[in-house]
Amino acid sequence: MGRIYGLLTGPRLYRIFGQAxxxxxxxxxxxxxxxxxxxxxxxxxxxxxxxxxxxxxxxxKRYDFDLDGVNADFVADQNANLWYHQGSPAYVGGPVTSxxxxxxxxxxxxxxxxxxxxxLLNWFLSGSLLSARNLMVSSKHGRRAxxxxxxxxxxxxxxxxxxxxxxxxxxxxxxxxxxxIYLVAVVLVRTWCAPLLYGKIREHPVLPGTxxxxxxxxxxxxxxxxxxxxxxxxxxxxxxxxxxxxxxWNQPGFGQSSGLPFPKNTLAAADAVMQYAKNVLGxxxxxxxxxxxxxGGFPASWLAANYPNVRAVILDATFDDVLPLxxxxxxxxxxxxxxxxxxxxxxxxxxxxxxxxSGPIKLIRRLQEEILTTDDAGTESxxxxxxxxxxxxxxxxxQRHSALMVGLESQVDRWLAMTPEHRAKSLHPSNxxxxxxxxxxxxxxxxxxxxxxxxxxVQPLDPRFFNIPDPIHNLKHNYY
Length: 480
Prior knowledge:
Blueprint (H helix, E strand, L loop, with lengths): L1 H7 L5 H4 L8 H8 L2 H16 L5 H4 L13 E2 L18 H20 L5 H22 L2 E6 L5 E7 L11 H27 L21 E5 L12 H5 L3 E5 L13 H17 L8 E6 L3 H10 L5 E5 L5 H8 L5 H11 L4 H5 L6 E6 L13 H6 L2 H13 L1 H4 L3 H9 L2 H7 L7 H16 E4 L22 H4 L1
Parallel strand pairs: 1-2, 4-5, 4-6, 6-7, 7-8, 8-9
Antiparallel strand pairs: 2-3, 3-5
């Protein structure tokens, strides 16, 4: 059956032609058995396999090999209480549409959505990933672990403990100390001196997150990579540079993780990572930040929906729904097939999922975005207007501030097109009319939830833009 499936799904031939170093012809087998290091690896692998004990994995982790069949360091529990997004019924086009959609997804659709799971790319990057893993362990004292998800996949992870005395953060502490004194003084003046100066008491502002404890190593950032991202060379490096503890993981089929990145496998892997972070690494849910880049916003949002007490969610270059992006890349004649395929097999509706999370969240929009736009032929402003991160912001505003959005949705588009200078001015209403104040509050909400980063989709995030958001308590204070 496997041979028939392989013939039907052409790109899977990459497993044969793209991984020449893993072919098992007789001559190579003889050559390997004569290699002392390979014989040593086989002995270690057999010992770990037969013992059934995960402690023997530590020696094996020095080698680069397929993880199928290894003993997991941690086995995730089955959780029947997890919530899953149930989308609207897919377009029904009959048996022909169903068959074409199935073939398209398994032959090339999955590879287009998740190129990082293709054998060819894994083979091409294997050397770089191995070097990066070794560097993480040797220079950053990384702790590698193999987790078994509820779907039976082995998920390759790496944990790096943060450093509070990170040289990049050494300047922060005296600055924060002085800033704290200043802000406390402002609060006292506005609270107790305002009646004398203005004849009325105004509510004191909510202090910004700069006063929070800067023991960053006590905060764990779980990074969720994009469709061609790996923890070895991915987004986990940004929070790590800032001194946060980080837990990176490769999605099923990526790097050394087994399986394929279908939604149920990806979400099961994400849940295994969360269970490992809480039960083994010992982090509280309140001390965990979920950081998703691109399609990694899908598992990050789902984790937030199921673990609503996480400290915050940061979504960088993330879309609201994969369907408009998929349809934009395919001819219009296949629109119905694409809709059926996406809604049936890869219904990545992040906007609907994140609606089930009400905690702190920050979106990062790439100004030179070339992947998440649906109009590649227009002007720069027209292309930017079709960035699906814009629509994700609207989903969040509609869910959390629906009263502000009534009749003002077009103002969100206006704010998204503004320069930073115009945005700053828009926070100060020119008069006290209800509409003007409501619009100023809406702009304040936009400013709270979204930050622009002048970069392309794949450019690494500048650490200065990695800011853990605070809850939005009262929009009044954001524009006074």
